[in-house]
Protein backbone atom coordinates (compact mmCIF):
# COMPACT_ATOMS: atom_id res chain seq x y z
CA UNK A 1 0.00 0.00 0.00
CA UNK A 2 2.84 2.38 0.78
CA UNK A 3 4.24 1.93 -2.74
CA UNK A 4 0.88 2.90 -4.23
CA UNK A 5 0.65 6.01 -2.03
CA UNK A 6 4.14 7.00 -3.08
CA UNK A 7 3.31 6.53 -6.75
CA UNK A 8 0.10 8.55 -6.48
CA UNK A 9 1.88 11.36 -4.68
CA UNK A 10 4.60 11.51 -7.35
CA UNK A 11 2.02 11.66 -10.13
CA UNK A 12 -0.02 14.40 -8.41
CA UNK A 13 -3.05 12.13 -8.12
CA UNK A 14 -5.12 12.93 -5.06
CA UNK A 15 -6.08 9.96 -2.93
CA UNK A 16 -8.14 9.57 0.21
CA UNK A 17 -7.57 6.98 2.90
CA UNK A 18 -9.79 6.95 5.96
CA UNK A 19 -9.63 4.68 8.98
CA UNK A 20 -12.79 2.63 9.65
CA UNK A 21 -14.25 3.12 6.17
CA UNK A 22 -14.20 0.80 3.19
CA UNK A 23 -13.08 2.16 -0.16
CA UNK A 24 -16.59 1.53 -1.58
CA UNK A 25 -18.12 3.88 1.00
CA UNK A 26 -15.51 6.56 0.34
CA UNK A 27 -16.14 6.30 -3.42
CA UNK A 28 -19.93 6.41 -2.92
CA UNK A 29 -19.63 9.44 -0.65
CA UNK A 30 -17.33 11.25 -3.07
CA UNK A 31 -19.73 10.69 -5.95
CA UNK A 32 -22.80 11.64 -3.88
CA UNK A 33 -21.17 14.78 -2.56
CA UNK A 34 -20.01 15.95 -5.98
CA UNK A 35 -22.95 15.11 -8.25
CA UNK A 36 -24.33 18.63 -7.90
CA UNK A 37 -21.57 19.63 -10.31
CA UNK A 38 -23.71 18.56 -13.26
CA UNK A 39 -20.94 18.87 -15.82
CA UNK A 40 -18.95 16.07 -14.14
CA UNK A 41 -18.91 12.45 -15.18
CA UNK A 42 -17.52 9.82 -12.85
CA UNK A 43 -15.95 6.66 -14.24
CA UNK A 44 -15.27 4.11 -11.51
CA UNK A 45 -12.93 1.21 -12.23
CA UNK A 46 -13.64 -1.81 -10.03
CA UNK A 47 -14.03 -5.56 -9.72
CA UNK A 48 -16.76 -5.15 -7.10
CA UNK A 49 -20.35 -5.44 -8.34
CA UNK A 50 -21.64 -3.60 -5.25
CA UNK A 51 -20.62 -0.33 -6.90
CA UNK A 52 -23.17 -0.87 -9.68
CA UNK A 53 -25.69 0.71 -7.30
CA UNK A 54 -23.96 4.04 -8.00
CA UNK A 55 -24.77 4.04 -11.71
CA UNK A 56 -26.52 7.22 -12.78
CA UNK A 57 -26.66 9.61 -15.66
CA UNK A 58 -23.22 10.95 -14.70
CA UNK A 59 -21.65 7.84 -13.11
CA UNK A 60 -20.37 4.86 -15.08
CA UNK A 61 -18.68 1.70 -13.89
CA UNK A 62 -15.79 0.03 -15.67
CA UNK A 63 -15.87 -3.50 -14.30
CA UNK A 64 -12.89 -5.80 -14.66
CA UNK A 65 -14.06 -9.40 -15.11
CA UNK A 66 -11.88 -12.28 -16.33
CA UNK A 67 -9.24 -10.07 -17.99
CA UNK A 68 -11.93 -8.03 -19.74
CA UNK A 69 -13.23 -4.55 -18.98
CA UNK A 70 -16.96 -4.00 -19.35
CA UNK A 71 -18.49 -0.52 -19.32
CA UNK A 72 -21.73 -0.28 -17.36
CA UNK A 73 -23.95 2.74 -17.82
CA UNK A 74 -27.35 3.46 -16.36
CA UNK A 75 -28.88 2.60 -19.74
CA UNK A 76 -27.17 -0.73 -20.42
CA UNK A 77 -27.67 -1.80 -16.80
CA UNK A 78 -31.42 -1.30 -17.22
CA UNK A 79 -31.40 -3.17 -20.53
CA UNK A 80 -29.62 -6.12 -18.90
CA UNK A 81 -31.53 -6.24 -15.59
CA UNK A 82 -34.90 -4.71 -16.49
CA UNK A 83 -34.86 -2.60 -13.32
CA UNK A 84 -32.93 0.58 -12.44
CA UNK A 85 -29.52 0.58 -10.68
CA UNK A 86 -31.20 2.12 -7.63
CA UNK A 87 -32.89 -1.27 -7.07
CA UNK A 88 -29.68 -3.29 -7.38
CA UNK A 89 -29.12 -3.37 -3.60
CA UNK A 90 -32.57 -4.91 -3.18
CA UNK A 91 -31.86 -7.48 -5.89
CA UNK A 92 -28.59 -8.52 -4.22
CA UNK A 93 -30.30 -8.54 -0.81
CA UNK A 94 -32.50 -11.37 -2.06
CA UNK A 95 -29.91 -13.13 -4.20
CA UNK A 96 -26.86 -12.77 -1.98
CA UNK A 97 -23.28 -12.26 -3.14
CA UNK A 98 -20.86 -15.20 -3.13
CA UNK A 99 -17.84 -12.93 -3.61
CA UNK A 100 -18.62 -11.02 -0.40
CA UNK A 101 -19.87 -14.15 1.43
CA UNK A 102 -23.41 -12.79 1.68
CA UNK A 103 -25.98 -15.56 1.85
CA UNK A 104 -29.09 -15.09 -0.23
CA UNK A 105 -32.54 -16.58 0.14
CA UNK A 106 -32.09 -20.24 -0.81
CA UNK A 107 -34.64 -21.03 -3.50
CA UNK A 108 -34.66 -17.49 -4.93
CA UNK A 109 -32.37 -17.32 -7.94
CA UNK A 110 -31.57 -14.51 -10.38
CA UNK A 111 -34.81 -14.95 -12.35
CA UNK A 112 -37.08 -14.87 -9.29
CA UNK A 113 -35.15 -12.02 -7.66
CA UNK A 114 -35.33 -9.99 -10.88
CA UNK A 115 -39.05 -10.64 -11.19
CA UNK A 116 -39.70 -9.56 -7.58
CA UNK A 117 -37.62 -6.38 -7.91
CA UNK A 118 -39.14 -5.52 -11.27
CA UNK A 119 -42.62 -5.83 -9.77
CA UNK A 120 -42.07 -4.34 -6.30
CA UNK A 121 -38.87 -2.22 -6.70
CA UNK A 122 -37.65 -2.69 -3.11
CA UNK A 123 -37.48 -5.52 -0.57
CA UNK A 124 -39.64 -3.41 1.73
CA UNK A 125 -42.39 -3.46 -0.91
CA UNK A 126 -41.86 -7.19 -1.50
CA UNK A 127 -42.46 -7.89 2.18
CA UNK A 128 -45.50 -5.59 2.30
CA UNK A 129 -47.03 -7.62 -0.51
CA UNK A 130 -46.18 -11.22 0.40
CA UNK A 131 -49.87 -12.16 0.32
CA UNK A 132 -49.80 -11.52 -3.45
CA UNK A 133 -46.98 -14.05 -3.97
CA UNK A 134 -47.17 -17.79 -4.62
CA UNK A 135 -47.01 -19.75 -1.36
CA UNK A 136 -43.60 -21.28 -2.05
CA UNK A 137 -41.96 -17.86 -2.65
CA UNK A 138 -43.89 -16.26 0.20
CA UNK A 139 -42.71 -18.95 2.65
CA UNK A 140 -39.07 -18.66 1.52
CA UNK A 141 -39.17 -14.90 2.00
CA UNK A 142 -40.92 -14.98 5.38
CA UNK A 143 -38.39 -17.51 6.69
CA UNK A 144 -35.48 -15.29 5.62
CA UNK A 145 -36.85 -11.80 6.29
CA UNK A 146 -34.18 -10.96 8.88
CA UNK A 147 -31.43 -12.15 6.52
CA UNK A 148 -32.74 -10.07 3.62
CA UNK A 149 -32.86 -6.84 5.63
CA UNK A 150 -29.44 -7.51 7.15
CA UNK A 151 -28.13 -8.06 3.60
CA UNK A 152 -29.60 -4.75 2.49
CA UNK A 153 -27.87 -2.95 5.33
CA UNK A 154 -24.52 -4.61 4.54
CA UNK A 155 -24.71 -4.18 0.76
CA UNK A 156 -25.92 -0.55 0.81
CA UNK A 157 -23.07 1.87 0.41
CA UNK A 158 -22.66 4.72 2.87
CA UNK A 159 -22.85 8.03 1.03
CA UNK A 160 -22.35 10.41 3.94
CA UNK A 161 -18.76 9.71 4.95
CA UNK A 162 -17.16 12.96 6.03
CA UNK A 163 -14.41 13.42 3.48
CA UNK A 164 -11.35 15.56 4.02
CA UNK A 165 -11.46 18.98 2.47
CA UNK A 166 -9.35 18.78 -0.63
CA UNK A 167 -8.99 21.01 -3.62
CA UNK A 168 -10.21 18.67 -6.32
CA UNK A 169 -9.12 19.73 -9.77
CA UNK A 170 -11.82 18.42 -12.08
CA UNK A 171 -10.46 20.09 -15.19
UniProtKB/TrEMBL annotation:
Q: Name one GO biological process term.
A: DNA replication, Okazaki fragment processing
Q: Which UniProt keywords apply?
A: DNA-binding, Hydrolase, Nuclease
A GO molecular function term, named singly, is:
5'-flap endonuclease activity
**CDD domains for the chain:** H3TH_53EXO
Q: Where is the 5'-3' exonuclease domain?
A: 1-169
Q: What Pfam families does this protein map onto? A: 5_3_exonuc (PF01367), 5_3_exonuc_N (PF02739)
Coiled-coil stretches are none
Claim: Transcription regulation is one of the keywords in the record: no
Q: SMART domains, per this entry?
A: 53EXOc, HhH2
> Which PANTHER family does the protein's record reference?
5'-3' EXONUCLEASE FAMILY PROTEIN (PTHR42646:SF2), FLAP ENDONUCLEASE XNI (PTHR42646)
Q: What is this protein called?
A: 12603_t:CDS:1
Instruction: Name the source organism.
Output: Racocetra fulgida
Amino acid sequence: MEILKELLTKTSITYVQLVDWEADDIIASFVAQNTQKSDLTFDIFTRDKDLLQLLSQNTNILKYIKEKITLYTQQNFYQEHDFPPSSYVDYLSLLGDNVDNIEGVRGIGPVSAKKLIKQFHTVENVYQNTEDLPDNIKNLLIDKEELVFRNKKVISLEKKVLLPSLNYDFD
